[in-house]
């Protein structure tokens, strides 16, 4: 575990502050955009549909990731972790659960869009609610396993945030990693790729496909792929051979995912943008309803 009152090994004063500043910007950006998305759902009746419930669930998960980044940013700017070992476990659990919910939520949205576009039938409420419950319960289940002894949460190299401990590379870590990665990264990625691929094939001739079919899968790969590569490397080699600064890169990249998701699933949607605009301009919203 990192020392609380000294700079972590491999980092200088300015480097710790720079990481904290980047995390702060990412956290505030993700919280702002996803917060507006969540508020628009509750303020705009037109958005209260089963398909938009999946987007709402993703926005809640991404808000959790941004909140986790905010705690890390504050700790980095303080240049210490002030919440103790129990706080580290809670921080690791919260960050891991919301990250898995975001990944699986992306796959749920992809399947929901495929269902709507390729079957020409609206997603039912009971199906959407079941998907959301499955995503969150599954994510909480996998995030709780390290607290129960399969896997372990510990400080990242910076010493101001906590995540799944990959420094040990023992059998316990390896078995948990491969099981978790299969069900919570490879399977969601496969569902996302196949769903959008089938949508492309169905609408290739008509040209009426109105969603970006490549960005969701690219976001999963580019946003969470560096973490996957770091964890995979830890199973076959001594991760201490990688510099502490380089080990922090996956965390910085992953914290950008909430902002990208908010742009892709909310700001690119005309209906959601209308809801956000109504939240920001309540007087205009009242005039529109009066008309």
Automatic annotation (TrEMBL):
InterPro entries from the UniProt entry: GPCR_opsins, GPCR_Rhodpsn, GPCR_Rhodpsn_7TM, Retinal_BS, RPE_GPCR
Domain of life of the organism encoding this protein: Eukaryota
Its Gene Ontology cellular component terms are:
membrane
Q: How does it sit in the membrane?
A: Multi-pass membrane protein
The keyword Cell membrane is annotated on this UniProt entry: no
Name the Gene Ontology molecular function terms of this record. Answer: G protein-coupled receptor activity; photoreceptor activity
Which ranges does the record mark as transmembrane? 16-42, 54-78, 90-111, 123-145, 173-194, 215-236
Any one of the GO BP annotations: phototransduction
Task: Enumerate the subcellular locations listed in this protein's record, separating them with semicolons.
Answer: Membrane
List the keywords (alphabetical).
Chromophore, Disulfide bond, G-protein coupled receptor, Membrane, Photoreceptor protein, Receptor, Retinal protein, Sensory transduction, Transducer, Transmembrane, Transmembrane helix, Vision
Pfam families for the chain: 7tm_1
Question: Is Transmembrane helix one of the keywords UniProt gives this record?
Answer: yes
Q: Which residues form the G-protein coupled receptors family 1 profile domain?
A: 33-265
Q: What does this protein do?
A: Receptor for all-trans- and 11-cis-retinal. Binds preferentially to the former and may catalyze the isomerization of the chromophore by a retinochrome-like mechanism.
By what name is this protein known?
RPE-retinal G protein-coupled receptor
């Amino acid at each position: 575990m990192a020392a609380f009152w000294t700079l972590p090994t491999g980092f200088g004063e300015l480097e710790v502050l720079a990481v904290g500043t980047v995390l702060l910007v990412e956290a505030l950006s993700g919280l702002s955009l996803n917060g507006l998305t969540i508020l628009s759902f509750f303020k705009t009746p037109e958005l209260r549909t089963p398909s938009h419930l999946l987007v709402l669930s993703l926005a809640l998960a991404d808000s959790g990731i941004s909140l986790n980044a905010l705690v890390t940013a504050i700790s980095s700017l303080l240049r210490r972790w002030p919440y103790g070992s129990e706080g580290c476990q809670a921080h690791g659990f919260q960050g891991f659960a919301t990250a898995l919910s975001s990944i699986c939520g992306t796959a749920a949205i992809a399947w929901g869009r495929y269902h709507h576009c390729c079957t020409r039938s609206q997603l039912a409420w009971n199906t959407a609610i079941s998907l959301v419950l499955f995503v969150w319960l599954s994510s909480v289940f996998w995030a709780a396993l390290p607290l129960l002894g399969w896997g372990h949460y510990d400080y990242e190299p910076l010493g101001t945030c906590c995540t799944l401990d990959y420094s040990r590379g023992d059998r316990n870590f390896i078995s948990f990693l491969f099981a978790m990665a299969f069900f919570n990264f490879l399977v969601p990625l496969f569902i996302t790729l196949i769903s959008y691929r089938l949508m492309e094939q169905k609408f290739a001739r008509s040209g009426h496909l109105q969603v970006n079919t490549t960005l969701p899968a690219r976001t999963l790969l580019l946003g969470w792929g560096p973490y996957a590569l770091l964890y995979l490397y830890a199973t076959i080699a001594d991760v201490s051979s990688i510099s502490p600064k380089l080990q922090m890169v996956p965390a910085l990249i992953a914290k950008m995912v909430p902002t990208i998701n908010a742009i892709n699933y909310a700001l690119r949607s005309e209906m959601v943008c209308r809801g956000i605009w109504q939240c920001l301009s309540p007087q205009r919203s009242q005039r529109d309803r009066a008309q």
